[in-house]
């Protein structure tokens, strides 16, 4: 690190955060910039203008990922920084957007200060990180993880296809196949993001040094019993699917304690009972089981324990049990060298910092397939996110931006690892 750490122009960054937050904001104070919606396109146009005003080279690839480039040289591997500016419906103003704006400010600051760089820097705003059309379209496309079949099949919850939505904005979804980057074209990728959880806020830490991103498994589970009259069927003669579910839910804590790790979590987030009448013993219980951890081996152990427990409960209660794997994401570890740079920069500024995993998925999880990655977290007040109540203090935002700026500087000037 340079003798005196670099600092961003914070009033300018604050102005950018406030300007982007106004785009797509509705009367309920939530932000509506779903991928390829009018709000999303308006935000993209605003970002284009800011990239050009900063004197960066503007580029858009086939997946509509938007780039700002500094000291661009296609023959040199670049250091990439960014996140996304699309949102879930009724979102807060920082999720994804803060990472893009802090990345923009970092590149803009280095350009204005005439800082010499050994390798190029790239800002990226990825398309559809929030999964309107399933997955993380922009970063998956950049990593070469989509196919013509994937593009054709991608639809939102209303049945609108990705191809249709992009065409309405003058874009060709099939061009996303040309967005793939080779591992040789990237030196590293860094993403700044709000934590979206309560840990840093509770600890009073301004900076989170992300160890890795938890993998997840999501199952659609079904317990099948016998629907029967709730008044005439004795308790000992029932095959009650809900009672099987209730027993399993109580077992989750034990399973995590015996087979999980310190970061393991499991959630039953959706339940459907059939036939769903107050006076009928439930004959079927379907529910979504999701579990996450930072270690692939732990996820395997949890899978085995959940399956065996469900099977035993079903057998004891006279139920049938089956499940379908709906989604799987492998955990990824952040690069040790980048983690050290983030931590040393936080120490240079005397920012309180803490190492922690990310329980949520991010574009970094995709980029880790092709390059070294690192993540910087800033606190989320009360752990709130994906809502209008999302908030991070300006002091913590400034701290995150300064750490990001210096981390990028070091990566852009380090010797090849």
UniProtKB/TrEMBL annotation:
Zn(2+) 2 binds at residues 95, 130, 386. It comes from the Bacteria. Allantoate binds at residues 218, 279, 292. CDD domains: M20_bAS (cd03884). Zn(2+) 1 binds at residues 84, 95, 193. One of its GO terms (molecular function) is metal ion binding. This is Zn-dependent hydrolase.
């Amino acid at each position: 690190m340079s003798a005196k750490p670099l600092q961003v122009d914070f009033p300018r960054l604050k102005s950018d955060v406030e300007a982007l937050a106004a785009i797509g904001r509705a009367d309920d104070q939530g932000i509506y910039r779903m991928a390829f919606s009018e709000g999303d396109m308006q935000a993209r146009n605003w970002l284009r203008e800011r990239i050009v005003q900063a004197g960066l080279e503007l580029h858009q690839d086939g997946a509509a990922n938007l780039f700002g480039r500094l000291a661009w040289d296609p023959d040199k591997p670049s250091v990439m920084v960014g996140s996304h500016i699309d949102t879930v419906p009724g979102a807060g103003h920082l999720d994804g957007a803060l990472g893009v704006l802090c990345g923009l400010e970092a590149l803009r600051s280095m350009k204005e200060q005439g800082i010499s760089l050994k390798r190029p820097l790239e800002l990226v705003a990825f398309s559809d990180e929030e999964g309107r059309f399933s997955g993380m379209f922009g970063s998956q496309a950049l990593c070469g993880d989509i196919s013509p079949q994937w593009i054709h099949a991608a639809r939102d919850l209303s049945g609108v296809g990705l191809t249709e939505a992009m065409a309405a904005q003058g874009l060709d979804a099939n061009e996303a196949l040309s967005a793939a980057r080779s591992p040789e074209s990237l030196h590293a990728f860094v993403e700044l993001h709000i934590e979206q959880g309560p840990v840093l806020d509770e600890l009073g830490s301004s900076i989170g040094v992300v160890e890795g991103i938890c993998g997840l498994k999501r199952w659609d589970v079904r317990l099948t019993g016998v629907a029967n009259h709730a008044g005439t069927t004795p308790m000992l003669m029932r095959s009650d699917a809900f009672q099987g579910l209730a027993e399993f839910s109580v077992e989750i804590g034990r399973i995590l304690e015996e087979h999980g790790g310190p970061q393991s979590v499991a959630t039953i987030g959706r339940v459907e009972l059939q036939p769903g009448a107050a006076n009928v013993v439930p004959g079927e219980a379907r529910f979504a089981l999701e579990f996450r951890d930072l270690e692939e081996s732990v996820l395997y152990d949890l899978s085995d324990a959940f399956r065996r427990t469900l099977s035993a409960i079903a057998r004891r209660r006279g139920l049938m049990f089956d499940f379908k794997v709906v989604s799987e994401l492998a955990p990824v570890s952040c690069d040790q060298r980048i983690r050290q740079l983030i931590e040393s920069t936080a120490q240079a500024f005397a920012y309180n910092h803490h190492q922690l995993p990310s329980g949520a998925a991010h574009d970094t999880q995709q980029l880790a397939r092709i390059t070294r990655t690192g993540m910087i977290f800033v606190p989320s007040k009360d752990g709130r996110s994906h809502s209008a109540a999302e908030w991070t203090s300006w002091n913590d935002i400034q701290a995150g931006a300064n750490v990001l700026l210096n981390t990028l500087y070091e990566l852009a000037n380090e010797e090849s690892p």
